[in-house]
Amino acid sequence: MLLLYRGENFDPNFYYHSGVDIDHSFLLSSGKKRILLTSKMNESLARSSFRGKVLVYTDAFELIKKLAGRKKVSADMLSLSARMAKRLGKVCHLKDASMELLSERARKKPEEVSCIRKAVRHTREVFDSLDFKKAKTELDLKKQILLATLEKGLEQAFEPIVATDRNSSFPHYRASNKKLGSLVLVDYGVKYEHYCSDLTRCFILGRDKRKESEYERLQDVCNSIVDALPELKKGKDVAKFAGKAIARQKFSEMIHSIGHGVGLEIHENPRLGAKSDDKIAGTVLAIEPAFYFPNKYGMRYEETVWFDGKRARIL
Amino acid sequence: MLLLYRGENFDPNFYYHSGVDIDHSFLLSSGKKRILLTSKMNESLARSSFRGKVLVYTDAFELIKKLAGRKKVSADMLSLSARMAKRLGKVCHLKDASMELLSERARKKPEEVSCIRKAVRHTREVFDSLDFKKAKTELDLKKQILLATLEKGLEQAFEPIVATDRNSSFPHYRASNKKLGSLVLVDYGVKYEHYCSDLTRCFILGRDKRKESEYERLQDVCNSIVDALPELKKGKDVAKFAGKAIARQKFSEMIHSIGHGVGLEIHENPRLGAKSDDKIAGTVLAIEPAFYFPNKYGMRYEETVWFDGKRARIL
Q: Do strands B93-96 and B190-192 pair parallel, antiparallel, or not at all (unpaired)?
């Protein structure tokens, strides 16, 4: 039996397993039997959208005790707060299934890939719509990005990163009122039906042969990693291959990992670190080679990639 | 000693006690001594913005063991995941301080009230800018709200609720492509420097004496509650007073609580339920009397109010 909870915030596992996004609700699922426990306030929404049985709780813990009291209950200990887990632990026997839940979501179904593909397409269109002549500062450009997203009726997958010149040397920089200089790094993605996309582009304004060549080599690194995926099995294999490809181009060693899984969360499994045994077949990956000259400038190039186990395709 | 963690998402207690919002960082604080443990990637950001000592971790748990190993450590078990609490519990002795942390944040400092006041002012301006002639559907109006927020360089405190006619009878409704009818309920707030605001207005388009009178009486209920605050002590006193005021106007009993505290979170302490012993002096409250005729229509009127313990002021 699986127990998932969606409190104040969107919960990827709750949505994945229930198909709905209803606040302060519990999903109890066992085989094909699915029960949604929700509040009086959300009852009509639940009844009209959830496929399964809907129960309205006054005391959710009492109800869970009745429904699951004697069974072992798998729960997501990465999402449940320590306090909620303690309260639930008093009415049923919880075991941590968070790693299994992450692995399950890592392998994407065709309809999930389709959502991510659409999210990527919309993000590309947002990038294409940027008008550097009308943007004086990083914040101006950020506003263009958010406006374009809003015009599409979509939401951001994460707050856009817009970093010019020296600011591009900080990988987690956001945006300020700094005037746009000769280099602008933009890292952004929109969501489509809760599924994320993640792309990074650098814009070299004016001629700069050195930077242009560096950016081209970074794109080559990204493409070579994508091409190599069918020969690789685990996250650590990707990390190792990428490390070599980056060294071959004489870029400095990466200070963040070469990428990550993308889905209902912007960062999810498989992990692509040097120690990751996560399998990459059937997953969607953000591949983002980068280099950073501290306090000078940095560049990053990122694609969202679908690897079905045989072929790897840039979405 | 207090230990707080900010992972992927904004954490109100981490921000409140550290003054910074840096991902994947721990705050260890004891009296005036404050240490921020952060990743290599966020080091420069931490050093330039955090007032206190910055340590870069490779293994955060090892470092916490060294710094806090023998002491009792207060932690926020409402925010820490069960999994993170388990890992931390292996390197130090955690005790749950989440209720104390919530109470502490409930009493607002002048600079916090000032931020909320600005957030409210901006939200009022967003409401004032709405152009019903240019909005055909709920989603059109939602877009106007989000555009106005973006133009101000601000972020939403929560997703706007735009509900017309029958949809206004569902308190947690969001927005759809339904055409705007004769009644439109809008519930919205922006954030100012991480502080939230929360207002609800109903717009009666065209003449409808009955609805106009109902809305007026709802505003009277709201004002009478605000006026009564200086005579009240606890959350349950507000609930009781509000219940009577609503009954006096012959509105049906509320299906949600009469309001909630507002601050770094849109819903925070004090709670205003029938059982709440939370003190209201020194807090900022959203007061939101409402009535709902199931499947017909509903109305809600909401103000954000600062009660310094003597006087209550609508912000």
A: unpaired
Cis peptide before B230 (omega within 30 of 0): no
What is the spatial distance between Cα B192 and Cα B121, in angstroms, rounded to a whole number?
A: 10
- Model pLDDT for residues A241-282, shown as the tens digit of each residue: 999 999 999 999 888 899 999 999 999 999 999 999 999 999
Reading the block at residue B133, the tokens are 């002639």
Which of these, B79, B113, B118, lies nearest to B97 by C-alpha position? B79
Contacts of A296 (CB under 8 A, 6+ apart): A166, A169
The DSSP element (H or E) to which B34 belongs, if any, is: strand B33-38
Q: Is the pLDDT reported for residue B24 higher than 90? A: yes
Give the pLDDT band (50/70/90) at residue A178. Answer: very high
Give the tokens for residue A255: 């200070």
Single pTM value for the model: 0.92
Contact call for A78 and B80, based on CB within 8 A: no
Neighbouring C-beta atoms of residue B210, cutoff 10 Å? 8
Reading the block at residue A206, the tokens are 């004016």
Chosen for mutation from B10, B59, B77 (greatest number of chain A CBs closer than 10 Å) is: B77
Confidence grade of residue B315 (pLDDT, cut at 50, 70, 90): very high
Q: For residue A41, what pLDDT is reported?
A: 83
Q: Which chain B residues have any C-beta within 8 angstroms of a chain A C-beta? A: 8-9, 23, 40-42, 44-45, 75, 77-86, 96, 98, 139, 143, 146-147, 150, 153, 170-172, 255-256, 267
Q: pLDDT digits over A210-249, tens only?
A: 999 999 999 999 999 999 999 999 999 999 999 999 999 9
Read off the tokens for B269.
């302490």
Judging by DSSP bridges, how do beta strands B25-30 and A195-196 pair with one another?
unpaired
| Rounded Cα gap, residues B192 and B153, in angstroms | 10
**How much is the pLDDT for B39?**
92
Mean pLDDT of A62-68: 94
Q: Which two tokens stand for residue B302?
A: 């909401």
Residues with Cβ within 8 Å of residue A169, at least 6 apart in sequence = A292, A293, A294, A295, A296, A297, A298
Q: In this model, does residue B296 exceed pLDDT 90?
A: yes
The ipTM is 0.87
Q: Which domains does chain B have, with CATH numbers?
A: 2-105 (3.40.350.10), 110-314 (3.90.230.10)
- With CA atoms as reference, report the closest residue to A305 among A212, A214, A242, A215: A242
Residue A34, pLDDT > 90, answer yes
Angle at B302 between CA B103 and CA B239, to 5 degrees: 55
Map residue B186 onto helix, strand or coil: strand
- Taking the C-alpha atoms of residue A140 and residue A179, their distance in angstroms, rounded to an integer, is 9
Q: Does pLDDT of A31 surpass 90?
A: no
Residue whose entry in the numeric block shows the structure tokens 């242009």: A212
Q: Give the span between the Cα atoms of A152 and B302, in whole angstroms.
A: 30
> What does the alpha-carbon distance between residue B17 and residue B305 come to, in Å, rounded to a whole number?
24
Q: For B80, which of A44, A82, A255 is closest by C-beta distance?
A: A82
> CB–CB of A80 and B81 under 8 A?
yes
